[in-house]
């Protein structure tokens, strides 16, 4: 595409372009329909000057500053909460729509929390000029649950998550790999404390992750709940516009590099059937059904990693309740769980801006 072709399209800024999610984002931007004019890469001053490839071209990274947002139509933020909290309002004040992947604004009543397959309409109402991207755990299930809710009417969720190390960022990935190297090829795991002693440092986790399962993700909140567990509850309610939805979650960290998994007990207003659930999920955008246990077919992180959809398997009607379904879901937490959903939101805004431009010119 020529520069002339791109000049009439919205300008996109990727803030945090050199981070783990930002790197995935650049690959996604290169593989999806090209709706952008200039793509501006922004990162911390220490990363300024680096050159990254996006859409097959080298682009130099510039330092985060107010001037970096001049002429930007949409700014995607893949940075820590505190950075987004400071800079997303600045980008919005400069005229950009900020699409934020952090947790800084998710529960702000003036900031829509958007999953395009579920509530795309919400992206148009943004009083602060900011749209928020849900947490990766919520995103790993909500596309499938949104489709089922539209048919059956969701009333309750009981969720257990099995979250990958990359949910804790690059330090989580590095820690798991280092721990695996330390315990690999040994007889560890048969005596109390031997894995703990062997791995030494726990990194961002409260216990060894290699050869282990850690029933904790996030920070401690009231009455023993973790921040990750409350995110699943609060974000599901907001996305589905069900403020009284009953949700209880237990978040667990497992020794997987990337891709979150969840078991879900979902109760509905109307009676359910597996056959109808398969039909709904099979036709839902962004969902793949992989459900044939007799042939050993169900989603696992090893198969789902690097893919975009939510994968659903082990669909069963609850043994004692014709209004409930049991599901197992997997989703790549760096793709749909972060970068892809952010890109999809940004594309909604780009389409809105593009359609509004001819009207404004009249």
UniProtKB/TrEMBL annotation:
From the UniProt record, give the pathway where this protein acts. Answer: Amino-acid biosynthesis; L-methionine biosynthesis via de novo pathway; L-homoserine from L-aspartate: step 2/3; Amino-acid biosynthesis; L-lysine biosynthesis via DAP pathway; (S)-tetrahydrodipicolinate from L-aspartate: step 2/4; Amino-acid biosynthesis; L-threonine biosynthesis; L-threonine from L-aspartate: step 2/5
Question: Which residues of this UniProt protein bind phosphate?
Answer: 106
Binding sites annotated in the UniProt record for NADP(+) = 18-21, 46-47, 166-167, 333
- The residues annotated as the active site are 136, 260
Q: Per its UniProt entry, which superkingdom is the organism in?
A: Bacteria
UniProt keyword Nucleotide-binding present: no
Q: Which Pfam families match?
A: Semialdhyde_dh (PF01118), Semialdhyde_dhC (PF02774)
Residue stretches making up the Semialdehyde dehydrogenase NAD-binding domain: 11-126
An example of a GO molecular function for this protein is: aspartate-semialdehyde dehydrogenase activity
**What PANTHER family does the database record attribute to this sequence?**
ASPARTATE-SEMIALDEHYDE DEHYDROGENASE, DEHYDROGENASE, PUTATIVE-RELATED
How is the quaternary structure described?
Homodimer.
This chain's protein is named: Aspartate-semialdehyde dehydrogenase
Q: Which organism is it from?
A: Streptantibioticus ferralitis
| Originating gene | asd
């Amino acid at each position: 595409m020529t520069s002339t072709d791109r000049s009439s399209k919205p300008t996109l800024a990727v803030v945090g372009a050199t981070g783990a999610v930002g790197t995935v984002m650049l690959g996604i931007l290169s593989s999806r329909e090209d709706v952008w004019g200039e793509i501006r890469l922004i990162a911390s001053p220490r990363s300024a000057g680096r050159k990254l490839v996006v859409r097959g071209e080298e682009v130099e990274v510039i330092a985060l500053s107010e001037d970096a947002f001049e002429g930007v139509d949409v700014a995607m933020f893949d940075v820590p909460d505190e950075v987004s909290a400071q800079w997303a309002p600045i980008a919005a004040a400069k005229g950009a729509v900020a699409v934020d992947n952090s947790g800084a604004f998710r529960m702000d009543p003036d900031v829509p929390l958007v999953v395009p397959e579920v509530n795309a309409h919400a992206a148009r109402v943004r009083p602060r000029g900011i749209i928020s991207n849900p947490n990766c755990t919520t995103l790993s299930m909500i596309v499938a649950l949104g489709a089922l809710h539209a048919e059956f009417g969701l009333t309750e969720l009981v969720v257990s998550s099995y979250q990958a190390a990359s949910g804790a960022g690059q330090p989580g990935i590095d820690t798991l790999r280092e721990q695996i190297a330390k315990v690999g090829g040994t007889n560890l795991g048969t005596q109390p404390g031997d894995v703990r002693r062997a791995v030494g440092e726990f990194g961002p986790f409260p216990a060894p992750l290699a050869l282990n399962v850690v029933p904790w993700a996030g920070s401690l909140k009231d009455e023993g709940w973790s921040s990750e567990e409350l995110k699943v509850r609060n974000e599901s309610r907001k996305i589905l516009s069900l403020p009284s939805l009953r949700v209880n979650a237990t978040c667990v960290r497992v020794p997987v590099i990337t891709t979150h998994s969840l078991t879900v007990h979902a109760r509905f207003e109307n009676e359910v059937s597996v056959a109808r659930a398969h039909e709904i999920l099979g036709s839902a955008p962004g969902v793949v059904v992989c459900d044939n246990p007799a042939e050993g077919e169900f989603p696992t992180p090893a198969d789902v990693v690097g893919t975009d959809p939510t994968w659903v398997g082990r669909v069963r009607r609850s043994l004692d309740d014709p209004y409930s379904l049991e599901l197992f879901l997997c989703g790549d937490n760096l793709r749909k769980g972060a970068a892809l959903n952010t890109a999809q939101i940004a594309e909604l805004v780009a389409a809105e801006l593009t359609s509004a431009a001819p009207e404004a010119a009249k």
